[in-house]
Design brief:
binds magnesium ion, binds adenosine-5'-diphosphate, Arc Repressor Mutant, subunit A, 41% helix, eight-stranded mixed sheet, alpha+beta
Length: 481
C-alpha cells in the first residue's frame, strides 16, 4: 500500500511588543522569575484588561503580508481551563471572530517549484506562564513572566504532504514575521512554536485520515523528526489492523521519543464565551491603509531584489532574505566591501555554518557586518588568500579584533614580494628536477596538473601565505625558459 501524509500546522508567534497584550507589564525575555507579571496578567479581582494597540497593528500587518482578509470587527473570548501556569483560569483568545481571515503563503519546494499553502485564519491571544521542572526536586516551579505576552496563532489548512513542505512553510512564516519586524523569531526562546497535525491516507483516497496533533515543537529539526516518527507510527498501526486515535501528543527533543498526552475523549470542554471585560475590536479603513502603505519589504520581494541587484543565485537570495537580521547584515557587508558575491559566500557559508555550530543567531554574531566586510576587502586586495581568510575569520569569531589587527599581529600577510617568491620557487624547482623534466615533456593538460603539484611545497615553505596568482606566474615563466 502507498501512503500519503497530510499535515496542517498551528503556529504560535510571540509578538515583539514592549508590553503585554492587556497590561503594561514588560515582555523582556530572561528577567528573574515572576518579576514581570502584574495584577492584570493574573486577573486579580478588580482589574480590567486594555488591548495593546501595537499587538493589533502587528496582527494586521501579518494579515496584509499573506493577502488575508482583515476582519474589521474581531472579538476576544475566554477559553476556560485549569492549569498551574494559567492563574486566570482562562486564556483570553479569539474563537469565532479572529482578526485575520483566510490568506495564503507561498513556499519553495526542493525541485525549484512553488506551492500555495492556505491559511485558515490567524487570531490574537495571550500566552500562559511556564512550568519549570529542572531546578525543583520533586516539585514544579511556576514563572508567570510570560503570562499575557501577545501571540498570534496562525492556523493552516491541511495542505502540506510531507515534512519537507511543512518545514518550508514554517521557515517561510519565520521569514515573514521577522521581515515584518512583528516578532524576534528567536525559536530557542520560544518566540515561535509549532503544533503539527498529521494524518495518513492510502494514496488516491479523497477523505483525510484521523489526525494527531504533536504540540509545541520549537525547532525545524524537531519538527522534521516528530513528523517522521508520527507518520511511521500511524502507518504501522493501520497496517497491523489497528486505527489511529485522535489525540494530542508530546515530542521530547532530548530522547527523540513521543507519547500520547490526551485523547479526544479526555479533551476539555473549554466553555468559550465572549470576554465581558473587553469590547469587540473595530479597525478603521484608515488604519489598515496606513499599515498597508508602510509594510516593510517581504521575503519574496527581497529575494527578487537580491537576484536583480546583486546577481545572486536563487538559492543564495532565498537564504539571505530569509530573515530581516540576515538580510540587513548581508546588505551592510556588501555596502562596505563592494563585492556582493564574496559577501554572499561568506554570509551563507562560513558565517552561517559557525552560527549553526554555536547554536546562535546572527543578531548575536561575534563577527559584526563591518568586521566581515573588512576581511573581504583584504581578500579582494590580495593581502590574504581565501584560505588564510578562514583562519582570520576564526580569530575574529574569538573576538581577537578586526581583520587588519589579526593579519598584522599573526603575520598572515600574503607574500607578494616577487623577489622573495622567486627564490622560493627556484628552490622548489631545484629540489624536483625530475618533475621539471616531466613538465617540459608534457602536453598542456598534464602540465596543468604538474603545475598544481608544485603549489603544495611552495605553500608549505611560505606557511600558506604565498600569493597563489603570483606563484603561478613565476612558475610558468621559469618552467618555460
Ligand atoms: P479543530 O477545530 O479541532 O481545532 P481544525 O479543523 O481547526 O480542528 O484543524 C486544526 C488543524 O489541524 C489545522 O491546522 C488543520 O489544517 C489540521 N488538520 C485538520 N484535519 C487534518 C487531517 N486530517 N490531517 C492533518 N491535519 C489536519
Ligand atoms: Mg485548533
Amino acid at each position: 500500500m502507498q501512503w500519503e501524509t497530510v499535515i496542517g500546522l498551528e503556529v504560535h508567534v510571540q509578538l515583539a511588543t514592549k508590553s503585554k497584550i492587556f497590561s503594561g507589564a514588560s515582555t523582556t525575555f530572561g528577567a528573574a522569575p515572576n518579576t514581570q507579571a502584574c495584577a492584570i496578567d493574573l486577573a486579580m479581582p478588580g482589574t480590567l484588561p486594555v488591548v495593546n494597540e501595537q499587538a493589533l497593528r502587528y496582527a494586521i500587518m501579518f494579515g496584509l503580508a499573506i493577502n488575508a482578509e482583515i476582519n474589521q470587527r474581531s472579538v476576544f473570548d475566554r477559553k476556560n481551563y485549569f492549569y498551574p501556569d494559567l492563574p486566570k483560569g482562562y486564556q483570553t483568545t479569539q474563537l469565532d471572530h479572529p482578526i485575520v481571515g483566510p490568506g495564503v503563503v507561498e513556499i519553495p519546494l526542493s525541485d525549484g517549484s512553488h506551492k500555495s499553502v492556505r491559511i485558515h485564519h490567524a487570531h490574537l491571544e495571550e500566552d500562559a506562564g511556564k512550568s519549570l521542572h529542572d531546578d525543583f526536586h520533586g516539585m514544579s516551579g511556576i514563572d508567570l513572566n510570560r503570562a499575557g505576552t501577545p501571540l498570534i496563532e496562525i492556523v493552516s489548512e491541511p495542505d502540506m504532504r510531507n515534512a519537507e513542505e511543512a518545514i518550508a512553510f514554517a521557515k517561510k512564516l519565520h521569514a515573514i514575521v521577522t521581515s515584518l519586524g512583528i516578532s524576534d523569531g528567536e525559536m530557542a526562546q520560544g518566540s515561535m512554536r509549532f503544533d503539527v497535525n498529521v494524518s495518513v491516507r492510502p494514496k488516491g483516497q479523497n477523505e483525510y485520515g484521523t489526525r494527531t496533533e504533536t504540540k509545541n515543537l520549537n525547532s525545524f529539526r524537531f519538527m522534521e523528526k516528530a513528523i517522521a516518527l508520527e507518520v511511521a507510527r500511524q502507518i504501522d498501526l493501520i497496517e497491523d489492523g489497528g486505527s489511529v486515535k485522535q489525540e494530542t501528543r508530546l515530542y521530547n527533543g532530548d530522547t527523540g521519543e513521543a507519547r500520547s498526552m490526551r485523547s479526544k475523549e479526555e479533551a476539555n470542554d473549554y466553555r468559550y464565551f465572549p470576554c465581558p471585560d473587553l469590547l469587540p475590536v473595530e479597525i478603521d479603513d484608515a488604519v489598515i491603509q496606513e499599515l498597508r502603505d508602510n509594510l516593510p519589504e517581504l521575503p519574496d520581494a527581497k529575494a527578487a531584489r537580491f537576484i536583480a541587484r546583486y546577481g545572486l543565485s536563487d538559492y543564495d537570495a532565498e537564504l539571505l532574505s530569509s530573515d530581516r537580521a540576515t538580510a540587513e547584515y548581508y546588505e551592510t557587508v556588501v555596502k562596505a566591501c563592494d563585492d556582493s558575491k564574496l559577501a554572499a559566500n561568506w554570509v551563507s557559508g562560513e558565517l552561517s555554518a559557525r552560527l549553526n555550530a554555536d547554536e546562535t543567531s546572527i543578531a548575536h554574531s561575534p563577527v559584526t557586518a563591518p568586521q566581515l566586510a573588512g576581511l573581504i576587502v583584504r581578500i579582494k586586495d590580495n593581502t590574504i588568500s581565501g584560505k588564510i581568510a578562514k583562519q582570520v575569520f576564526e580569530a575574529m569569531w574569538n573576538r581577537e579584533g578586526d581583520a587588519d589587527t589579526i593579519i598584522e599581529s599573526k603575520g598572515l600577510k600574503q607574500m607578494s614580494d616577487s623577489g622573495e617568491l622567486e627564490a622560493i620557487v627556484d628552490q622548489v624547482l631545484a629540489d624536483n628536477p625530475d618533475v621539471v623534466e616531466q613538465y617540459r615533456a608534457a602536453d598542456d593538460k598534464k602540465r596543468k596538473k604538474l603545475l598544481g603539484g608544485f603549489m603544495g611545497p611552495i605553500m608549505k615553505a611560505t606557511k600558506g601565505q604565498a600569493n597563489p596568482g603570483m606563484v603561478n606566474q613565476i612558475l610558468v615563466k621559469k618552467l618555460n625558459t
